[in-house]
Amino acid sequence: MLVVLVVVLLAAVVVLVVALTRRRGQQRPPAPQDPFRDRDADVLRGDPRTLKAGDTVEIRGRAYTVRGSLHYTEQSWGWTEHLLDDAAGGKVWLSVEEDPDLELALWHEVPPATVTPGAATVDFDGRRYTRDESGTARFTSTGTTGLAATGTARYADYAAPDGALLSFESYAGPGEADRWEVGRGERLPRAEVRVWSQGG
Question: Which letter does DSSP use for residue 43 in this model?
Answer without folding.
Answer: H
